[in-house]
Amino acid sequence: MPLQRLKDLLDRYGVRYESIVHLPAYTAQGIAAITHISGKEVAKTVIVKLDGSLALAVVPASHRIDLRLLQAATGVTKAMLASEEEFKDAFPGCETGAMPPFGSLYGLPVLVDETVTQDQEIVFNAGSHTELIRLAYEDFARLEGPKVLRFSAGASTAAA
Questions:
Q1: Where are the beta strands (DSSP E) in 6-96?
Q2: How many CA atoms lie within 13 A of 121 on its CB side?
Q3: Which domains does the chain have, with CATH numbers?
Q4: Residues paired with residue 139 on neighbouring β-strands, in sequence order
Q5: Integer Cα distance of 118 and 61 in angstroms
Q6: Which of 19, 75, 108, 152 has the fewest CB atoms within 10 Å distance of its CB?
Q7: Is the pLDDT of residue 52 over 70?
Q8: pLDDT per position as a tens digit, 76-120
Q9: Three-state secondary structure of 119-135
Q10: What pTM value is reported for the model?
């Protein structure tokens, strides 16, 4: 169960967090609307391929990934969105599209758009379309050590 793995990690390091249960929502903007949480505070995890290797790219729900910026920021030859087929087995127990931004749980690197760092707290999917976790961004950064880059393109309703 991905939520329990995540909670175990947070508990092990003494991280204060809030678990939020909500009606099913399948997009980050939908989650923001249904939970009345700002779209800039809800962090969506997008699975990308950087020169063929999977990585987690985290942006505010109100933004989208600019693949050209991502490619330039990471220095890779090719940056693209991963298909569900390419990542479905990488997140055991997680519902597709509800992966938490904790790559350490799955052996994947985490890239965070610099706009995510501007809020004191982040809220993100906890492995399902009905559960969120809210915690201090500082704690997330301390546990994950994400690479902070600029790769989002402003506010958008786009899926990525």
A1: 17-21, 43-50, 53-60, 63-65, 79-81
A2: 12
A3: 2-155 (3.90.960.10)
A4: none
A5: 14
A6: 75
A7: yes
A8: 999 999 999 999 889 988 888 889 999 999 999 999 999 999 989
A9: CCEEEEECCCCCEEEEE
A10: 0.88
